[in-house]
Design a protein that fits this description.
This protein has helices at 6-21, 28-44, 46-68, 73-95, 112-129, 137-145, 158-165, 173-205, 212-243, 261-267, 270-284, 291-309, 313-332, 344-361, 369-378. It is an all-alpha fold. The longest helix is centred in the middle third of the chain and has 33 residues, at 173-205. The two termini are 41 Å apart.
Length: 384
């Protein structure tokens, strides 16, 4: 969202310049970044600023208390996670206007589904590390409010971000050139390609009745559209994050060259899939799971990812669909394919099959139940 606002882009670029000019000050990445994060949110929206100030402060207190508890730690850990999930659910229901409250403003939910995952990751750190998990309020606030990844990720790991804060600002000329090119590429995807592709999608889908060929085209086209949209955003976020001296992780790792769905979900929106696998598997099954346990956990993870995207039956069904496919891969032992141990033809045939399964359900990402029904109905219409 921020990257489509030129004033916001200029503000972030200005902060990068300030960090470069103050690189000799050891604390520039910490103190100046906090000032920037808070100022940016305050200018963008006062309600958003107040909400996140209170939300982050409360969770920092919870983080400190959890790290120091010796009794009832697991109970406190579960309750704190439940409280954060409940807060997100309430704000989402308010946004859906299922009920109302005079203090609610939709801007308050901006980026929350990503930032709550960071809060929970920090709680995991405090729970498993204990008293050695101490972190200053300064670094905790920077972690939650980090502007380059604030609205849509990539999802930062608490341990990695805190490690980065301890390193001096060391972005050199070659890295600056590389990251600026990455930002320009992301802008091209978001502003040029996605705008054009959205117009084409709307024109074709706007027909009164769709034929099978049109529905198939729209499913493939929409898949490409959301790839350029989200990978473009990720390019910009990674570029600006690294220009600020933080190693923002990659979100897309050649997903179209994934021979199985298990590998696909490690490469497409990689930080989200990694987060759910790490936190669900760590809490539910800390030992190496059996094939059936892994299949069950895969179903749970994909349904949760579906609900994370939106509270609708479409997303639940999308999660069940992918959960079943991942479960079958686990049970049948087809979770990975080693490119070096199989023929080139076999490898790319498996990649094509994986993409076919993904394309079959990708239109659900539109979030528009009428459009989804219209496109799927068109698949049965082969008349001209």
């Amino acid at each position: 969202m921020f990257y489509l606002n030129m004033n916001a882009v200029l503000a972030i670029a200005g902060m990068v310049l300030v960090l470069a000019l103050t690189r000799r000050w050891p604390g520039n990445k910490r103190y100046l970044l906090l000032a920037f994060n808070l100022s940016f949110l305050a200018v963008f929206s006062q309600k958003l600023f107040v909400f996140y100030l209170a939300y982050t402060a409360l969770n920092y207190v919870a983080f400190i208390i959890l790290g120091r508890l010796s009794r009832l730690r697991k109970t406190a850990f579960i309750l704190l996670i439940a409280a954060n999930v409940a807060a997100v659910c309430i704000l989402r229901l308010l946004g859906m206007e299922l009920f109302t409250h005079p203090l609610f403003d939709v801007v308050m939910a901006l980026g929350l589904i990503y930032n709550v995952l960071k809060v929970i990751d920090a709680l995991y750190f405090a729970y498993f590390i204990g008293r050695d998990s101490r972190t200053s309020a300064l670094d905790y606030f920077n972690y939650i409010l980090f502007i380059p990844t604030f609205t849509s990720g990539p999802i930062l790991k608490f341990r990695d971000f805190i490690a980065d804060t301890k390193q001096p600002y060391q972005v050199d000329a070659a890295q600056t050139e590389q990251y600026v090119k990455r930002i320009i590429l992301g802008m091209f995807k978001k502003i040029v390609l996605v705008t054009w592709m959205t117009d084409v999608f709307n024109n074709v889908s706007g027909a009164q009745q769709l034929h099978a060929t049109e529905s198939i085209f729209l499913m493939i086209w929409f898949y490409a559209l959301i790839f350029f949209d989200f990978s473009g955003y990720s390019d910009i976020a990674v570029g600006f994050g690294r220009l600020m001296g933080y190693n923002v992780p990659e979100n897309f790792k050649k997903p179209f060259q994934s021979p199985t769905l298990t590998q696909y979900w490690r490469n497409w929106h990689a930080t989200l899939g990694d987060w759910f696998r790490d936190h669900i598997f760590m809490f539910v099954s800390r030992k190496t799971p059996t094939k059936w346990t892994a299949a069950g956990l895969s179903m749970l993870v994909m349904v949760l990812i579906g609900l994370w995207h939106g509270f609708s039956w479409l997303y639940v069904l999308w999660g069940v669909y992918h959960g079943l496919l991942l479960g079958l891969e686990n049970i049948l032992g087809y979770t990975t394919v080693n490119k070096r141990k199989v023929s080139r033809r076999y490898f790319y045939a498996r990649c094509a099959l994986s993409q076919l399964f993904v394309t079959a359900a990708v239109i659900v990402y539109s979030g528009n139940s009428e459009a989804v029904y219209k496109i799927y109905s068109g698949l049965a219409n082969w008349s001209w």
